Amino acid sequence: MDPKIYVKLIFDDESFTRSRLYFWVIGCLNEFLVSIEDNTKQWKLFREARVTPLLKPLPKSRDVPQNPDSSTPYHRSEIQRLQSLDQSAEGIRENLEILRSRFKNQLETVKALRDGLFNASALIESRAATKLGENVKLLTYVSIFYLPLAFCAALWAIPNINQGSTRDPLIVTAIIVGFATYVIVFNLENIAGLSGRIYHNWRANLVKVMQEDSSQEWKTLGQRFEEFRPNNDRKRPSEWRIVLYQMRMLMRKHKG
């Protein structure tokens, strides 16, 4: 098995050729398995009801004279022919069982290829989305590069820009604002993480105090902030209520 050729089975084209092929093969194999199982089941039922009783020797009766040419009410030649047909039918049934086992193995193989195709397609789409996100990120950085210059130009949108008293402060301000902007942008993830940790610690302490408040309204509101509500009808309160409670505490301390 050539790995370079085999791995191509998990990649599809724009027309979804392999996906449609796998879908068709799985449908055919399922129909084959159902047909084989139904035929073998019907044969077993027919054999137990019709063939097996005829092949069993009948008990001899003194009242019924026995035909010397037959061991049962049927002739020996008919019994032998029935036994031969029964053996042939059993051989066909065994072949069908073997074929059924092969179809099952092939079905599992096709399902594995189909799952691999779906996983590979999802991986390719994920990489494409990641690449698109990186491109958008680069475009954002390019636009941010001109943001300080546009900001300073808007502030200094006045005449006499060629004079030193106007030009020099513009240059200094553009450099300072640009440097500060670039530092913030390139460390935005760290700054956001630090700000998030500070906010969550402050929020957790304030919610704990809110739950111990003497007012039942604020106590209930604090409990709602700690609850997980998957139902859209019971949404969590707005985070601005925490800021409002902080202002309320400051006002109470000021009055006290």
TrEMBL record:
Pfam families: CorA. Residues 67-76 have a biased composition (Polar residues). InterPro entries: MgTranspt_CorA/ZnTranspt_ZntB (IPR002523). One of its GO terms (molecular function) is metal ion transmembrane transporter activity. The chain crosses the membrane at residues 138-158, 170-188. Residues 57-76 are annotated as: Disordered. Keywords: Coiled coil, Membrane, Transmembrane, Transmembrane helix. Residues 82-113 form a coiled coil. One of its GO terms (cellular component) is membrane. It comes from the Eukaryota. This is Uncharacterized protein. It comes from Zopfia rhizophila CBS 207.26.
